[in-house]
Design a protein that fits this description.
- The protein is of the alpha+beta class.
- The chain has a domain of 79 residues.
- The protein is built from 10 helices and 11 strands.
- α3 crosses α6.
- It is globular, with a radius of gyration of 26 Å.
- The N and C termini lie far apart (68 Å).
Protein backbone atom coordinates (compact mmCIF):
# COMPACT_ATOMS: atom_id res chain seq x y z
CA UNK A 1 0.00 0.00 0.00
CA UNK A 2 2.89 2.35 0.73
CA UNK A 3 4.36 1.65 -2.71
CA UNK A 4 0.98 2.25 -4.34
CA UNK A 5 0.63 5.52 -2.46
CA UNK A 6 4.11 6.57 -3.62
CA UNK A 7 3.20 5.65 -7.22
CA UNK A 8 0.03 7.74 -7.01
CA UNK A 9 1.99 10.75 -5.79
CA UNK A 10 4.73 10.28 -8.40
CA UNK A 11 2.40 9.83 -11.38
CA UNK A 12 -0.28 12.28 -10.28
CA UNK A 13 -2.96 9.75 -11.17
CA UNK A 14 -6.29 9.60 -9.33
CA UNK A 15 -6.13 5.79 -9.23
CA UNK A 16 -3.74 2.95 -10.02
CA UNK A 17 -4.48 -0.66 -10.86
CA UNK A 18 -2.45 -2.72 -8.38
CA UNK A 19 -2.32 -5.79 -10.66
CA UNK A 20 -0.91 -3.76 -13.56
CA UNK A 21 -0.02 -0.18 -12.56
CA UNK A 22 0.69 0.80 -16.18
CA UNK A 23 -2.83 -0.07 -17.37
CA UNK A 24 -5.37 2.76 -17.17
CA UNK A 25 -9.08 2.46 -16.59
CA UNK A 26 -10.95 2.63 -19.89
CA UNK A 27 -14.57 2.34 -20.91
CA UNK A 28 -15.08 -0.97 -22.73
CA UNK A 29 -18.67 -1.40 -23.84
CA UNK A 30 -20.71 -0.70 -20.73
CA UNK A 31 -17.89 -1.50 -18.32
CA UNK A 32 -14.85 0.34 -17.03
CA UNK A 33 -11.78 -1.89 -16.85
CA UNK A 34 -7.98 -1.57 -16.72
CA UNK A 35 -6.83 -1.79 -20.33
CA UNK A 36 -4.44 -0.79 -23.09
CA UNK A 37 -5.49 0.81 -26.36
CA UNK A 38 -4.19 -0.96 -29.49
CA UNK A 39 -3.27 1.19 -32.48
CA UNK A 40 -2.89 -0.25 -36.00
CA UNK A 41 -2.04 1.30 -39.36
CA UNK A 42 -2.84 -0.91 -42.36
CA UNK A 43 -1.81 -0.74 -46.01
CA UNK A 44 -4.95 -0.40 -48.15
CA UNK A 45 -3.61 -2.42 -51.10
CA UNK A 46 -2.70 -5.69 -49.39
CA UNK A 47 -4.10 -5.32 -45.85
CA UNK A 48 -0.62 -5.55 -44.30
CA UNK A 49 -0.11 -3.98 -40.87
CA UNK A 50 2.64 -1.37 -41.29
CA UNK A 51 2.64 0.03 -37.76
CA UNK A 52 1.34 -1.18 -34.40
CA UNK A 53 1.69 -0.10 -30.79
CA UNK A 54 -0.30 0.07 -27.56
CA UNK A 55 -1.00 3.14 -25.48
CA UNK A 56 -2.35 3.66 -21.99
CA UNK A 57 -4.58 6.51 -23.24
CA UNK A 58 -8.19 5.84 -24.24
CA UNK A 59 -8.44 8.91 -26.44
CA UNK A 60 -7.32 8.10 -30.00
CA UNK A 61 -6.93 11.73 -31.05
CA UNK A 62 -3.58 11.94 -29.27
CA UNK A 63 -2.29 8.92 -31.22
CA UNK A 64 -2.81 10.05 -34.81
CA UNK A 65 0.40 12.05 -35.26
CA UNK A 66 2.56 9.36 -33.62
CA UNK A 67 1.25 6.46 -35.68
CA UNK A 68 1.29 8.48 -38.91
CA UNK A 69 4.93 9.44 -38.41
CA UNK A 70 5.79 5.85 -37.44
CA UNK A 71 4.37 4.61 -40.77
CA UNK A 72 6.75 6.93 -42.66
CA UNK A 73 9.69 5.90 -40.46
CA UNK A 74 9.00 2.15 -40.84
CA UNK A 75 8.15 2.06 -44.56
CA UNK A 76 10.27 4.95 -45.79
CA UNK A 77 7.26 6.16 -47.77
CA UNK A 78 4.63 8.86 -47.32
CA UNK A 79 1.02 7.62 -47.61
CA UNK A 80 -0.91 8.98 -50.59
CA UNK A 81 -4.03 9.25 -48.42
CA UNK A 82 -4.95 8.50 -44.80
CA UNK A 83 -8.30 7.35 -43.45
CA UNK A 84 -9.24 7.01 -39.78
CA UNK A 85 -12.45 6.58 -37.80
CA UNK A 86 -14.20 9.33 -35.86
CA UNK A 87 -12.26 8.49 -32.70
CA UNK A 88 -9.22 10.22 -34.20
CA UNK A 89 -11.09 13.40 -35.14
CA UNK A 90 -10.09 16.61 -33.38
CA UNK A 91 -9.27 20.16 -34.39
CA UNK A 92 -5.62 19.50 -33.54
CA UNK A 93 -5.55 16.52 -35.94
CA UNK A 94 -7.27 18.56 -38.67
CA UNK A 95 -4.70 21.33 -38.18
CA UNK A 96 -1.91 18.75 -38.43
CA UNK A 97 -3.36 17.43 -41.69
CA UNK A 98 -3.60 20.97 -43.06
CA UNK A 99 -0.11 22.03 -41.97
CA UNK A 100 1.56 18.88 -43.33
CA UNK A 101 -0.56 18.88 -46.52
CA UNK A 102 -1.78 15.33 -45.77
CA UNK A 103 -4.68 14.00 -47.83
CA UNK A 104 -6.73 12.83 -44.83
CA UNK A 105 -10.29 11.51 -44.51
CA UNK A 106 -11.55 11.56 -40.91
CA UNK A 107 -15.24 12.11 -40.04
CA UNK A 108 -16.03 13.86 -36.77
CA UNK A 109 -18.20 12.20 -34.13
CA UNK A 110 -21.09 14.64 -34.63
CA UNK A 111 -21.10 13.92 -38.36
CA UNK A 112 -21.47 10.21 -37.66
CA UNK A 113 -24.35 10.85 -35.24
CA UNK A 114 -26.12 13.12 -37.71
CA UNK A 115 -25.63 10.67 -40.57
CA UNK A 116 -27.21 7.93 -38.45
CA UNK A 117 -30.21 10.21 -37.77
CA UNK A 118 -29.68 10.07 -34.01
CA UNK A 119 -29.68 13.83 -33.34
CA UNK A 120 -32.23 14.79 -30.69
CA UNK A 121 -32.73 18.26 -32.15
CA UNK A 122 -32.20 19.86 -35.57
CA UNK A 123 -28.48 19.26 -36.20
CA UNK A 124 -26.05 22.12 -36.54
CA UNK A 125 -25.18 20.98 -40.07
CA UNK A 126 -28.56 22.24 -41.25
CA UNK A 127 -27.63 25.78 -40.19
CA UNK A 128 -25.77 27.64 -42.96
CA UNK A 129 -22.79 29.72 -41.90
CA UNK A 130 -21.95 32.92 -43.79
CA UNK A 131 -18.30 33.95 -43.17
CA UNK A 132 -18.88 37.42 -44.65
CA UNK A 133 -21.58 38.36 -42.15
CA UNK A 134 -20.30 36.00 -39.43
CA UNK A 135 -23.79 34.65 -38.86
CA UNK A 136 -25.81 31.44 -39.24
CA UNK A 137 -29.16 30.96 -41.00
CA UNK A 138 -31.52 28.33 -39.60
CA UNK A 139 -33.72 26.02 -41.77
CA UNK A 140 -36.62 28.48 -41.30
CA UNK A 141 -34.53 31.42 -42.56
CA UNK A 142 -33.95 33.10 -39.18
CA UNK A 143 -30.53 34.64 -38.56
CA UNK A 144 -28.36 33.61 -35.62
CA UNK A 145 -26.11 36.58 -34.81
CA UNK A 146 -22.86 36.56 -32.87
CA UNK A 147 -23.68 37.10 -29.19
CA UNK A 148 -20.38 36.60 -27.39
CA UNK A 149 -17.69 34.08 -26.48
CA UNK A 150 -17.76 31.14 -24.11
CA UNK A 151 -15.51 28.27 -23.04
CA UNK A 152 -16.20 24.76 -24.29
CA UNK A 153 -15.59 21.54 -22.38
CA UNK A 154 -11.90 21.64 -23.35
CA UNK A 155 -11.46 25.13 -21.94
CA UNK A 156 -11.19 26.70 -25.40
CA UNK A 157 -12.96 29.92 -26.31
CA UNK A 158 -15.64 29.50 -28.98
CA UNK A 159 -18.02 31.98 -30.59
CA UNK A 160 -21.69 31.88 -29.65
CA UNK A 161 -24.59 32.64 -32.02
CA UNK A 162 -28.25 32.98 -30.97
CA UNK A 163 -31.68 33.82 -32.37
CA UNK A 164 -35.17 34.26 -31.00
CA UNK A 165 -37.21 31.11 -31.71
CA UNK A 166 -40.55 32.58 -30.60
CA UNK A 167 -43.54 31.41 -32.69
CA UNK A 168 -41.33 29.15 -34.83
CA UNK A 169 -43.28 26.02 -35.90
CA UNK A 170 -40.09 23.95 -35.60
CA UNK A 171 -39.23 25.17 -32.11
CA UNK A 172 -39.78 21.88 -30.29
CA UNK A 173 -37.70 19.98 -32.85
CA UNK A 174 -34.91 22.53 -32.66
CA UNK A 175 -34.46 23.44 -28.99
CA UNK A 176 -36.08 23.28 -25.58
CA UNK A 177 -35.00 26.86 -24.78
CA UNK A 178 -36.49 30.14 -25.92
CA UNK A 179 -33.46 30.71 -28.11
CA UNK A 180 -31.41 28.37 -30.30
CA UNK A 181 -27.71 28.72 -29.57
CA UNK A 182 -24.88 27.51 -31.80
CA UNK A 183 -21.16 27.67 -31.06
CA UNK A 184 -18.29 27.85 -33.53
CA UNK A 185 -14.68 26.81 -32.91
CA UNK A 186 -11.89 28.99 -34.41
CA UNK A 187 -10.78 25.97 -36.48
CA UNK A 188 -14.25 24.88 -37.51
CA UNK A 189 -13.58 25.87 -41.11
CA UNK A 190 -11.22 22.85 -41.24
CA UNK A 191 -14.04 20.59 -40.07
CA UNK A 192 -16.41 22.09 -42.64
CA UNK A 193 -13.86 21.40 -45.38
CA UNK A 194 -13.40 17.82 -44.15
CA UNK A 195 -17.15 17.17 -44.17
CA UNK A 196 -17.40 18.53 -47.70
CA UNK A 197 -14.48 16.34 -48.76
CA UNK A 198 -16.00 13.21 -47.21
CA UNK A 199 -19.33 13.97 -48.85
CA UNK A 200 -17.84 14.01 -52.35
CA UNK A 201 -17.96 10.95 -54.62
CA UNK A 202 -14.19 10.54 -54.45
CA UNK A 203 -14.14 11.08 -50.68
CA UNK A 204 -16.80 8.44 -50.07
CA UNK A 205 -14.98 5.93 -52.27
CA UNK A 206 -11.66 6.45 -50.47
CA UNK A 207 -13.19 6.29 -46.99
CA UNK A 208 -15.23 3.19 -47.83
CA UNK A 209 -11.94 1.36 -48.47
CA UNK A 210 -11.26 1.58 -44.74
CA UNK A 211 -13.90 -1.06 -44.00
CA UNK A 212 -11.99 -3.59 -46.11
CA UNK A 213 -8.51 -2.73 -44.81
CA UNK A 214 -8.04 -1.92 -41.13
CA UNK A 215 -11.25 -3.52 -39.81
CA UNK A 216 -10.38 -7.00 -41.18
CA UNK A 217 -6.94 -6.70 -39.58
CA UNK A 218 -8.53 -6.01 -36.19
CA UNK A 219 -10.95 -8.89 -36.72
CA UNK A 220 -8.18 -11.30 -37.73
CA UNK A 221 -6.19 -10.59 -34.57
CA UNK A 222 -9.16 -10.52 -32.27
CA UNK A 223 -11.38 -13.33 -33.56
CA UNK A 224 -9.35 -15.57 -35.87
CA UNK A 225 -6.35 -15.61 -33.54
CA UNK A 226 -8.55 -15.35 -30.41
CA UNK A 227 -6.66 -12.39 -28.97
CA UNK A 228 -9.70 -10.92 -27.22
CA UNK A 229 -7.57 -9.26 -24.57
CA UNK A 230 -3.92 -8.91 -23.59
CA UNK A 231 -2.70 -11.86 -21.53
CA UNK A 232 0.39 -10.11 -20.17
CA UNK A 233 1.05 -7.30 -17.71
CA UNK A 234 2.92 -4.09 -18.40
CA UNK A 235 2.80 -1.74 -21.37
CA UNK A 236 6.02 -3.10 -22.88
CA UNK A 237 4.81 -6.70 -22.74
CA UNK A 238 1.38 -5.78 -24.12
CA UNK A 239 3.11 -3.97 -26.98
CA UNK A 240 5.20 -7.08 -27.71
CA UNK A 241 2.07 -9.23 -27.77
CA UNK A 242 0.36 -6.90 -30.24
CA UNK A 243 3.47 -6.91 -32.45
CA UNK A 244 3.58 -10.73 -32.43
CA UNK A 245 -0.04 -10.97 -33.53
CA UNK A 246 0.59 -8.29 -36.16
CA UNK A 247 3.54 -10.29 -37.51
CA UNK A 248 1.35 -13.41 -37.61
CA UNK A 249 -1.31 -11.47 -39.54
CA UNK A 250 1.30 -10.22 -42.02
CA UNK A 251 2.83 -13.68 -42.51
CA UNK A 252 -0.59 -15.04 -43.46
CA UNK A 253 -0.98 -12.17 -45.92
CA UNK A 254 2.44 -12.87 -47.44
CA UNK A 255 1.69 -16.60 -47.80
CA UNK A 256 -1.68 -15.92 -49.41
CA UNK A 257 -0.16 -13.34 -51.74
CA UNK A 258 2.66 -15.70 -52.74
CA UNK A 259 0.22 -18.53 -53.35
CA UNK A 260 -2.02 -16.34 -55.52
CA UNK A 261 1.01 -15.08 -57.47
CA UNK A 262 2.12 -18.63 -58.22
CA UNK A 263 -1.37 -19.52 -59.44
CA UNK A 264 -1.54 -16.50 -61.72
CA UNK A 265 1.96 -17.07 -63.14
CA UNK A 266 1.47 -20.79 -63.62
CA UNK A 267 4.56 -21.48 -61.52
CA UNK A 268 6.16 -24.93 -61.78
CA UNK A 269 6.64 -24.81 -58.00
CA UNK A 270 2.89 -24.33 -57.51
CA UNK A 271 1.99 -27.27 -59.73
CA UNK A 272 4.58 -29.45 -57.99
CA UNK A 273 3.19 -28.51 -54.57
CA UNK A 274 -0.39 -29.02 -55.75
CA UNK A 275 0.51 -32.43 -57.23
CA UNK A 276 2.11 -33.48 -53.94
CA UNK A 277 -0.90 -32.41 -51.88
CA UNK A 278 -3.29 -34.13 -54.31
CA UNK A 279 -1.24 -37.35 -54.25
CA UNK A 280 -1.19 -37.46 -50.45
CA UNK A 281 -4.90 -36.74 -50.25
CA UNK A 282 -5.75 -39.33 -52.90
CA UNK A 283 -3.53 -41.98 -51.29
CA UNK A 284 -5.12 -41.32 -47.90
CA UNK A 285 -8.57 -41.61 -49.45
CA UNK A 286 -7.74 -44.97 -50.98
CA UNK A 287 -6.40 -46.28 -47.66
CA UNK A 288 -9.52 -45.24 -45.84
CA UNK A 289 -11.66 -46.98 -48.42
Amino acid sequence: MEKTKADLIETGKASINITDPEANLMKIGGDIEPAYNAQLAVDSTNGVIVSAHVTDEQNDTQQFKEIYESVIEITGMTPKAVTADAGYASYEVLQFLFDEKIDGYIPDTRMRIEKAGKSKYTPKSQFVYNPETDAYTCPRGRILHFSGNQKNNNGEFVKKYTTDCKDCPLHDKCTKSKQRTITRHPLEHLQDAMRKKLGSVNGKAIYDERMSTVEPAHADIKYNNECYEFSVRGKKNANCQLLLYSILHNLKKIINFSFESMVESGSFLFYSAAHLVFSLFYRDRNCNL
